[in-house]
Design brief:
The protein is globular, with a radius of gyration of 18 Å. The chain is an alpha/beta fold. It is built from four helices and ten strands, in the order E-E-E-H-E-H-E-H-E-E-E-E-E-H. Helix 1 runs parallel beside helix 2 (70-87). A five-stranded mixed β-sheet has the order 3-2-1-4-5, sandwiched between helices. The two termini are 34 Å apart.
């Protein structure tokens, strides 16, 4: 089994975790907003010390690739790349939108398995970064910036329940109307939540180019309305 050092800096809070044999065994989180540059170095150092104390060799570094805060993503990826070079280990990139969706999956909810998960990351005003996934993480809607309007998600399969989550979802409650729409509060990305996605990527050797990988900003000059893929 693997030991993965995970870094999450896409949102307001900085977090770092040590994932060993499929469990987040050690993690550090900052409760102060946008304190990434100050917090990330000491947190990474503590994780490395913990790994050495337990005699675990770090096999890979996982980092959230966005979308999210431009500055936060650059800080996280720069730290992850530096660690990969110094430790001579591969780099795993984690989609922040998928990370939020997977965290929602593990909520204590009586899921039926046919719900559609819609993560939302706050951008500005009524704009979010968003996507739509089933429980296999197949896309109903590709990751994109979107200005939320009443009909933004009307093209998603009508017979399926839609669940919104992430820090961008709160501001949509007064705009999106429908009996099949539901909101999950407090589903924000943290490094410890990367466990399932990071382990899967490691098993499949799904690694990024350490030198040339860049964050998935997604942001365009003007946000687009949704482009929904074919129904599945």
């Amino acid at each position: 089994m693997s030991t993965i050092l995970a870094i999450e800096t896409s949102g307001k809070y900085c977090s770092v975790a040590l994932i060993h044999e499929g469990l987040a065994e050690f993690n550090k989180e900052d409760d102060h907003e946008m304190n990434h540059a100050r917090a990330i170095g000491p947190y990474v150092e503590e994780c490395i010390k913990e790994a050495r104390k337990r005699e675990w060799k770090i096999d890979a570094v996982a980092v959230s690739m966005g979308p999210g805060s431009y500055t936060g993503l650059r800080i996280g990826l720069s730290m992850a790349k530096g660690l990969c070079f110094s430790l001579n280990v591969p780099l795993i990139g984690i989609s922040t939108l998928k990370l939020i969706a997977v965290k929602a999956m593990f909520r204590n909810i009586d899921w039926q398995g046919n719900e559609i998960l819609v993560p939302m990351i706050d951008a500005r005003r009524m704009e979010v970064y968003t996507a739509a996934y089933d429980f296999r993480l197949d896309e109903f809607m590709e990751p994109q910036p979107m200005i939320i309007e009443a009909d933004s998600y009307h093209d998603l399969p009508y017979e399926r329940e839609i669940y919104f989550m992430g820090d961008g979802s709160e501001k949509t409650k007064d705009i999106l109307k429908g009996e099949r729409y539901h909101w999950l509060d407090g589903v924000n990305p943290k490094a410890a939540d990367m466990t399932a996605l990071a382990e899967k990527a490691f098993r499949e050797s799904d690694f990024l180019d350490v030198a040339y990988s860049v964050p998935e900003y997604l942001k365009e000059y003007e946000a687009k309305k949704s482009t929904v893929k074919g129904l599945k």
